[in-house]
TrEMBL record:
Membrane topology term: Multi-pass membrane protein
Residues passing through the membrane, by range: 20-37, 146-166, 172-192, 204-224, 230-249, 316-336, 348-368, 380-399
Native species: Plakobranchus ocellatus
Gene3D superfamilies: MFS general substrate transporter like domains
Record-annotated Major facilitator superfamily (MFS) profile domain positions: 26-439
UniProt GO cellular component terms: membrane
Lineage: Eukaryota, Metazoa, Spiralia, Lophotrochozoa, Mollusca
Keyword Transmembrane helix tagged: yes
Record-given protein name: Solute carrier family 22 member 21
Main location: membrane
Keyword line: Membrane, Transmembrane, Transmembrane helix
Compartment annotation: Membrane
Length: 439
């Protein structure tokens, strides 16, 4: 039997098992980086929880009496619940009630420090910007593997250091650095595993619900431990386990070929074929050489940079459209996720349920995106999210308090499902909208 004609590295993947055991390992250890980022990102939805606290104006007051104060707002011996002053006297200290240990209770981020809650979350999200840019550049220059697992190692270290923050200023700095690392991990979590997958299976990767699974784990651990510091230790342990992937998942064979490392690229293909129980076609080396030669020829002509995204009218237009879309998706997702502690009901159950139902959003995208297309899927989901948002606005303005709280909480849960389904579909659409050199 003659060897089939191979022209691309994707043809080789089809011949050595397609979606086989090796690809499943890649999806778990590399695609699973989103699981860890979801856990780490949502820390502030717990750490930023503001529970009941007592304003203390008399420092000699017996604190053991405060644990019996209910949420009625009554004053006891110069102290009151959830206020910043008593009879015109500012609080000297605060006593937080209940078992939850959060960043709010740790550093008394209430009253004149209340603004720090939103600021810390914003600073964490701001860290994603330099992290994603540097992560993308690092992935191109030193490789996907070193970037992904180097970032993961830093994620372990920074989570441990952050867990021992002694001041809120230190905590803020650590959240920014962790945000940057999360940006790098997110950038690597899609292209790195995709470069091991046959073309026809790549649309499935963004639809695998790693993120909500990570947030579900976070909710369970938060309910169990009720301590922001221990939750960060848990995230560090989970990240350390995923570091085992460094010893299992090799560098991208395509990236190795573009760097002129032909023998290394071929060895990776041999490993993939061996794990999948297939024979590597003899012509695979010719394909690897072809990729290396094409990259060498392109390097002589032009070096591509981020500026090339804006040089052509079409690429500039689609970049603007997708950037606007992703900004809206991020505002909706993080607005709901970090505001979940304001929902009616139990904090842990709300976080858990919100992410359980999000799994169905991922499955919806995986099923319909190839049947009705990328554009139709995105348009339908964005329209649905718009309708729900308008209903929430109407309820906020017109509905009475008991009805408003229940309905808005429920509609926000539904909006989060549609939002993640839209984001998964958008990842596929945007990846296919750019040429390879810019992608």
């Amino acid at each position: 039997m003659s060897n089939p004609k191979l022209s691309t590295i994707e043809d080789i993947y089809d011949q050595i098992g397609g979606l086989g055991r090796f690809q499943f390992a890649v999806i778990f250890f590399v695609g699973g980086l989103k699981y860890l980022v979801g856990w780490s990102m949502m820390l502030m939805s717990y750490a930023g929880y503001i529970g009941d606290y007592v304003c203390i104006t008399d420092l000699e007051m017996d604190h053991t009496m405060l644990t019996n104060i209910s949420a009625s707002g009554q004053t006891v011996k110069g102290s009151a619940l959830n206020v910043c002053s008593v009879n015109g006297t500012a609080c000297n200290d605060f006593k937080f009630l209940g078992s939850k240990r959060t960043a709010i209770s740790e550093w008394h981020l209430v009253c004149d420090r209340r603004w720090l809650k939103a600021t810390i979350t914003s600073i964490q999200l701001a860290g994603l910007i330099p992290g994603s840019i540097l992560g993308g550049l690092s992935g191109d220059y030193i490789g996907r593997r070193y970037t992904a697992y180097g970032s993961l190692l830093l994620h372990v270290i920074l989570n441990v250091i952050s867990a021992y923050s002694v001041t809120w200023q230190m905590f803020v700095v650590m959240r920014f650095l962790l945000g940057a690392i999360m940006g790098a991990l997110l950038i690597m979590s899609v292209p790195y595993p995709c470069e091991f997958l046959p073309t026809r299976w790549r649309h499935v990767l963004p639809a695998i619900p790693f993120w909500p699974t990570g947030v579900i784990s976070f909710a369970v651990v938060a309910w169990w431990l009720e301590d922001w510091s221990l939750i960060q230790h848990g995230c560090a342990i989970a990240s350390a386990v995923m570091l085992l992937g460094y010893f299992i998942i090799p560098e991208s064979p395509r990236w190795l070929a573009t760097q002129g490392r032909i023998e290394d690229s071929y060895k990776v293909l041999e490993k993939m074929a061996r794990i999948n129980g297939k024979a590597l076609p003899h012509s695979a080396m010719d394909v690897v050489r072809k990729i290396a030669e094409e990259e060498k020829a392109n390097a002589k002509k032009k070096q591509y940079t981020y500026g090339d995204v804006f040089k052509r009218k079409r690429s500039c237009f689609i970049t603007f459209v997708f950037s606007f879309q992703w900004n809206m998706l991020a505002i909706i997702y993080y607005g709901i996720s970090f505001g979940v502690n304001s929902f009616v009901g139990n904090l842990y159950i709300n976080v858990f349920l919100m992410n359980v139902v999000q799994v169905f959003g991922y499955f919806f995208t995986a099923v319909v995106i190839n049947k009705i297309g990328r554009r139709v899927t995105n348009t339908f989901l964005m329209t649905a999210a718009l309708m729900i948002s308008l209903v929430c606005v109407c309820l906020q303005v017109a509905a009475s308090e008991p009805t408003r709280g229940r309905w808005i909480s429920g509609l926000c849960q539904l909006a989060s499902v549609i939002n993640v389904a839209n984001w998964a579909a958008s990842q596929v659409w945007i990846t296919e909208s750019y040429p390879t050199v810019i992608r």
